[in-house]
Predict the 3D structure of the following.
Amino acid sequence: MKHFRLKLIVLFLLLFASLTALASIFGRADYFFTQLVLIAIIILLAWQCFYTIDTSHREINKFLFALKYLDASVSFPKQSKNSFQKLYDGLNNAMKELTARAEQKDLQKEWMEHIIQRMPIGVMLIQDKNQILFTNELTLEFLSIPNLKRLDQLESYQKDLVGQILNSPYGHAQKVTLENNKEAELYKVGFQQENKLEILFIHPLDELKGPIEMDAWMKLIRVLTHEIMNSISSISSLASTLHESIKSENLSSDMQLAAESIEKRSQNLIQFTESYRKVSDIRAAQKTWFILSEIVKAQAQFLKADLDSISIGIDTDEKQQIFADQQQIEQVIINLFLNAKIALQKTEKPSIYIKVCQEKTSCHLSFTDNGVGIQAKDQNHIFVPFYTTRSNGKGIGLSLCRQFMHNNNGSISLKESKVGNTTFLLRFKA
């Protein structure tokens, strides 16, 4: 920059001297040729001044443009012998620093998006009340929408939700019901007043806790079964050894019965625990495309003897296909049939109604019976492993159904339950 200033000073001094010399001889005929030379020199010096200043402006503008768009490909000449070398060196160093910061920012943004995408809660970033800057996958799946760019586009998928989002107060949870009867809580946070940025958190009340609870229960079951099996196996082995020793020593019959009882009880506990181990060791889904209505009708026919006295109505789209593990979905439907059979034991005109339909980007199967219903106090616990309301039940059926649906990127929920109307809703990605 020092050379740049010195060059301009020299140019201006030469220009001033030339103008002074021209002024002193201007109009004299005997200095006509000298005047032409001075005019040419003045034009050349003026052009050189303009070129020098314009070059610096262009390089600075080039730097500012690169800065605006964080264009790391922009660079300036190195090892140049002209007066701009220090300027170029400074701009190059600034570009390196900006590029490093931009890369760090991009990395932080990538990690942040990676984390938000995997959050067990819906997140949407909105600017100026309408522009959607970011939406995570759980929100897209829960609302059954594509990746929209504007909030008003949501109106086509969830009619009343846009107004509820706009009118939702900051810092307060608001419960909403979607068109597909899903329930959620909205929580909105606003920041950066001038840009009007808002973060919307969507907490699915029924969908969120299902997979999380199920994963937690499965982990707990694995730990418990492992520890219980280790303990019971040792007890069973010791009881067996004790039993043989008592028999060989011809000890009292009471001691023999006690040892035999411990051994049998240990074996029963091993079988009991082993059955629960199966709940937590479900195989991964082997997915194929198949027509859902065919599976429903096939299972109704398979259970015809058990459901003989029950009126079954099936309203399905004969072409509706889903991508899932056929055997696991069959188990879900069979379990719903058998549960409905028990609920319908005291109903005069027992009936089951099944409907399969396409809803936006997902396939829905509703399974309704007119039985006794599920009591309100039990409705929040029916998918919890080993929770049962029947004296001879194990509480595995519905928890297995939820795990099967989770394995196939679907969900199962209790839509409604009262005397005469209990409906389970299965959702599949179409």
